[in-house]
Design goal:
This protein is mainly alpha-helical. The chain has a single domain, classed as Arp2/3 complex 21 kDa subunit ARPC3 (Orthogonal Bundle). Helix 3 crosses helix 4 and helix 3 crosses helix 7.
Length: about 200
């Protein structure tokens, strides 16, 4: 009897359909932001796709935001040319100078989402800016710079100096992310589940 009840009950989904749709939309957004193409001024191209990664974390939170980036990276790894410049395949995750930044996108989306969840529902501008800098820049560089140094055979300090060119654009992306996320969370306050310890706080 118990087995019959269990078998007749619908299987519980890990993620609701709405969450899956949001993940797919942001994976598509990251891909779309690669369409303008990269700006090649160094060994690692400057692209708009890091903006999509920041937005995924700041709008969807740590779980859904990271899954959106993961979906994008998996599709890229199997060969779809989704990276700026129509690049794809497993090689960009191994020997490419940009490989570490791609792994850093996962960490960056998670950190941005984790910190954003703790700032809601108010999401004040300056703390949000700091949270997005930590996730969207520091976390990404933390993995990206050492891997670039290894893959190019550069001293770590040289790799760090090469990343200075990324900073102005990345800071602009951080500001855009915070401004967009503030409006989104104001209009749709339930997008990110708040941590249990923060449920009752205004």
């Amino acid at each position: 009897m118990t087995d019959t009840i269990r078998s007749s009950a619908p299987a519980r989904r890990i993620l609701p359909a709405r969450d899956l749709a949001q993940i797919a939309i942001f994976a598509a957004l990251i891909a779309a932001l690669g369409l303008p193409g990269p700006l090649n001024i160094g060994p690692v191209p400057i692209t708009m796709q890091t903006l999509g990664v920041m937005l995924a974390g700041a709008i969807l939170g740590p779980r859904k935001g990271t899954l959106a980036v993961l979906l994008f990276l998996v599709l890229t790894a199997v060969g779809l040319p989704l990276l700026a410049g129509a690049r794809g395949g497993i090689g960009v995750f191994t020997v490419s100078p940009a490989a570490g930044y791609l792994y850093g996108w996962l960490l960056g989306a998670f950190v941005t989402g984790y910190l954003t969840a703790r700032l809601l529902p108010k999401y004040p501008f300056w703390p949000a800016l700091g949270a997005t800098i930590l996730g969207g820049i520091v976390a990404v560089y933390l993995l990206g710079i050492p891997v670039m140094a290894i893959n190019l055979g550069l001293p770590l300090w040289t790799a760090i100096s090469l990343n200075v060119a990324f900073l102005p654009g990345d800071l602009i992306k951080v500001i855009v992310t915070v401004l967009v996320a503030r409006q989104v969370h104001k209009a749709y306050p339930g997008l990110i589940a708040r941590p249990l310890g923060h449920q009752g706080r205004a």
